Each structure stands twice: as structure tokens, then as C-alpha cells.
Amino acid sequence: MTQPASYVDQPRDPRPTDRVVTVLLLIALIVLAPAAGFMGLLTAMATDSCGSGNDCNEGLVATGVFTSAASPIVVALVALVWVVVRWRRGRTTWWVPLVAALVAAGTWWIGALITFGAVGW
């Protein structure tokens, strides 16, 4: 026996623990994302060895620093919007900040590797 279509379209009510865990993880993500962005700006210090006979690709350095500085903040904002959308639809949301943290860390490392590769490490 199948349920009427209106039953399928109704939003589900996630458990309160899902909401609490989501809020706590989002707070942690929103606090840590700017810190990671600041640490991304510090990857520019890899260019200290440039100029003393070591050729550096300045455009690639800028790309790497921008990627490692901006990506954690952008990922955190996208995760916040995604959580709100899923929350409004009655879906579970606890895993979204965790995935966002992994994606932010990965993109931060990609930016740092670009910067270090442009310097010639």
C-alpha cells in the first residue's frame, strides 16, 4: 500500500539532538573558519626566500594565498546556507558542518600547496 503524495511532501521533524549538535558544530565552524583564513594569509610568508636568487611565480603565490585565506570562510558560509535550507525542509543537518570542515581544510591545503609550489619548496 502506498502513501498519498501529500504524505511524502510533508517535512519530517528531526530529533532535538540533531538540532543541538548542528548548532554546536556550526558555532565551531564559524569560529574556526576566520582563524583558518588568517592562517591562510600567513602562507604568504613563504615568499621570504624570493628575490635572493630564487625565482618565484608571484601570480601563483597570490592565487595560493587567496585560495587558502578565502576558501574556509566561503565554505563555512555555504554550509550555513545549506544547513538553513535542510533545516527548513525538516532534514537532518548534523553532518553538514562536519563535511564543510573537511572541505575547508582540503581547500586550505590546496591553496597552501599552490603557494609553496610557486615559491619552489
From TrEMBL:
Domain of life: Bacteria
Transmembrane segments: 20-45, 65-85, 94-119
Keywords: Membrane, Transmembrane, Transmembrane helix
InterPro entries the UniProt entry points to: DUF6264
Protein name: Uncharacterized protein
UniProt organism field: Nocardioides exalbidus
